[in-house]
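Batch job 17 of 40 flagged for manual review because the log was empty.
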Amino acid sequence: MVKSMTGFASQMQALETATARYSCRWDLRAVNGRGLDLRFRLPDWLEGLEVALRKRLSARLARGSVTLSLRLTRLDGEGGLRLDSAALDAALGMLVEAESRAEARGLALAPFSGADLLMLRGVVDHGADAGEAMGDPGPLLEPLMAQAEALIDALEAARAAEGAALAGILTGQLDAMAALLAEARAILPARREDQMQALRAALARLGEVGAPAGAVDPGRLEQELAMIAMRGDVSEELDRLDAHVQAARALIAQEEGPVGRKLDFLMQEFNREANTLCAKSQHAGLTRIGLDLKTVIDQMREQVQNVE
């Protein structure tokens, strides 16, 4: 099954222990990545939570740059927002000193609002975020992991839905490539005839500039035509491109496991064969087909970068 590396899941849930009630705000975001890069924004005092979450995400996701954040707020009296007077006094003192130093150097600082002060770290105490009110975080870990499991399920559903849309796009691009390859095969007999006519015209011009009549051996002419045909034969490139199309279709139809890396490798092979086809074409129609193939391949490669 094709899955996208991009997805988002968010949930707000309540959590209650024997001693406290909490509000849990989860956010889980994933974007493209070469491997699996996990980043966490969790309350520092919840020891053991990051290790458990990292293990679970690593088991569920194969690729992507993933960020998981948890905002845990205590809902009882211990967890309301409180102004830390000492921290505020320290922040005001630093602000006065900074303004004084700036003024001494002839600089004027922008006005600092009350909202700016409240955003400074430590000025507002968020209750359970600080950890002292909770004590032992152990009773919270199991219910938090249960919430995280549902969050990961939601992310996986979002990635699968986007992956289904990607699969449709990729299938359409493979159909376009298959049609171009069929057109290329259909044009090969006319291309061979054009090459033979061009060679005969060149020989005729050679005779016009003084070559002795009958100087060209018919047998040798046939040999030259055969060598030209061999050097310009593109059947192998077309066969390999056909095989790559079938391999890509099989990967897209695969039910289990990530396929993004394999598709990315196939895109390199597609591009290599298309380049060779253009280099050997020696025919305007085949060159056009080769360039059209390269355009579709480039478009497909961009989509493949989103596949897990």
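Reviewer: the log was empty due to a logging misconfiguration, but the result itself is present. The radius of gyration is 34 Å. Unflagging and moving on to job 18.
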